[in-house]
Amino acid sequence: MNRLRLPAAGLSRGIGRITSTALGPYQTAVIRIGFSATWLLFLLRELPNRHELYGPQGPWSWELAQRLIADNQAFTVLTWTDSRLWFECVYGLAIVSSALLMLGWRTRTMSVLFLVGALSVLNRSVFVGDGGDNVIHLMAMYLVLTRCGQVWSLDARRAARTARARGGGFPEQEHETAELDFDRVGPVLWWLLGLALSLVTLLGQLSWGWSLIFWTIWAVHGLWWYLGRRAPGSELRALCDVATNLLHNAALFVIMAEACLIYATAGWYKIQGNRWQDGTAVYYPLHLDYFSPWPALSQWLSTHGTAIMLITYGTVIVQVAFPFTLFNRRVKNVLLAAMMVEHAVIAVLLGLPFFSLAMIAADAVFLPTTFLRRIGKRAARARSALTARTRGVPEQRGGTATGQDEAYGTGAPQPVPSEAEPPPSSPPEADVTPRP
Amino acid sequence: MDGYEQGRGAGPPGPRTGIAALSPPYQVAAALVLAVVVLVSCVHLAMVFLHVAPANTVSKQHGAAVDDWVYPEFEQNWKLFAPNPLQQNIAVEARAQFRTADGGVRHTEWHGLSAQDGAAIDGNLLPSHTQQNQLRRAWDYYTSTHDTKDRPNGMRGELSAEYLRRIAVLRIGREEAGEPADGLLRVQLRSVTTNVQPPSWSGEKLDPKPVIRLLPWWNVTSQDLEVRDR
């Protein structure tokens, strides 16, 4: 029925929506967790090999990296000095920031540190990367612009607790406002990072463009804090909220478009290849020494010509079709499931676990809200059951030992419970998929 | 307060939010932000699209602008196993020349570096980038920045040769652990490229004979000898 409205009314409704709400709180949370977990697991996997891959004395030495970076101007802090200690610190920072971003602790700050860590490591040695590294590299930049800690984060939990302690109803969308009276960590973190940024700027290590980006982010974080404390009801604060929502929604849209570009490119180029046309393409990677961890399985699979052809054609069909299926939620969900399964299979069969994990995380941005909330509730229930069993009694916290309290009061990221749901932004059944 | 009870976004009589809740001067500012954000997003997506699409009328005309926008941080390549998957196994091998204790020179056997990678990947749920990407991509990088007579195409070509040499020094050091490291004088690499035979049901047959590409001997520098994996 909405379609019968005048286009102008639709437009103004749309503008109202993208300026007043940060859409897709669950989708942005799930990709935040997905990408940071992928990067964290990768860094831990390569911990024993970190020197060989990214260290100053590895085959791609500090000196070689510096010559390339001087030419291509990519961002990395690892070329600032060839000190081994510096390298260890940066690798450590990359690990810690991805873990904290995954948990949603100081999400806004951690997303920036995650960006610094990921770009530093990836740009340091571009020639050891693959498609998975490329996805992480891009998404680390887009994530900085999203409000990806609205749900399933320590920030959201803290904001909700503070709001309840104050007797207020709705937890705020972002953590900054609700907790200002009690919060010390935020300002300390902000000052420390400002100090570090000043030092780096004075030493002249940052390019002009990156200085501008980091100082702007720093100033904006400060402004948020100040407005939240001194003028929470002011119009300037409301304007900032509008601007932040706009940035979030644009970044979310770009992330979705980027995922579509990945599939469209992969699919449309495949159509032009004669091996994808004659239905044997999947046979070949299974016989490449670098992509066949299970030779016996590969051999077995490649004795089934028809199956190979069906998988070959199916892959192309799914990749080419996916962007168009976004206009029909049911078809989209079927294809999404198919792609996630295919990536899980690729992870094992071709030995590409981190690439596959990154792609599954990217796919997850298209998951329906209802599904994500169901998963979140189930995880919360499993968690509280687990803690109840290990501790003997359900954890008591604050005054009210309601079920809702349990959902919050235990450690890891939790979904916002029913009282707070839906976040003002999204009608419960809404999907962030663009609709015709 | 009725609007409040209904919650935000519950219907037309609810409180105005977003841009509608602002007074006119702030609305102008918000509209400006909206315009900039929409414009930048669209330009960005257009640039990335032109970057990943095949060379076309528009990208040929505005190639420099696209490159300026996309490089270095938004570079991407999604031709995953496309247009065709690789249909050859490229095995990189290396051998070395050592100075012996009596002042002579000793040549080692060819060490199958890719074969070692392949063996390390077999049965491995989590292959490392050192096993799956390092040598494979270094060889790609070298061959794409050198002509068939091994002349580099400029700075990137020189970097690739140095990189490949250091990988060889590192790996030969592991293989020839008995030799004193500073006795390593020169290394040589070659690739042995074998076609993956098409599946039996296709009826196609490819030449099973491997093609060998031999690179020149390279002198090992003192800097190369400092290469470490720990």
From TrEMBL, chain A:
Keywords: Membrane, Transmembrane, Transmembrane helix. It is found in: Endomembrane system. Residues 20-371 form the HTTM-like domain. It comes from the Bacteria. The chain crosses the membrane at residues 85-105, 135-154, 188-206, 212-228, 249-269, 307-327. It is a multi-pass membrane protein. Residues 414-427 have a biased composition (Pro residues). Residues 386-436 are annotated as: Disordered. The keyword Membrane applies. InterPro entries: HTTM-like, Sporulation_signal_mat. PANTHER family: HTTM DOMAIN-CONTAINING PROTEIN (PTHR39535:SF2), SPORULATION-DELAYING PROTEIN SDPB (PTHR39535). This is HTTM domain-containing protein. It comes from Streptomyces cavernicola.
Automatic annotation (TrEMBL), chain B:
The chain crosses the membrane at residues 28-50. InterPro entries: DUF5819. Keywords: Membrane, Transmembrane, Transmembrane helix. Pfam families: DUF5819. The keyword Transmembrane helix applies. This is DUF5819 family protein. It comes from Streptomyces cavernicola. The lineage of its organism: Bacteria, Bacillati, Actinomycetota, Actinomycetes, Kitasatosporales.
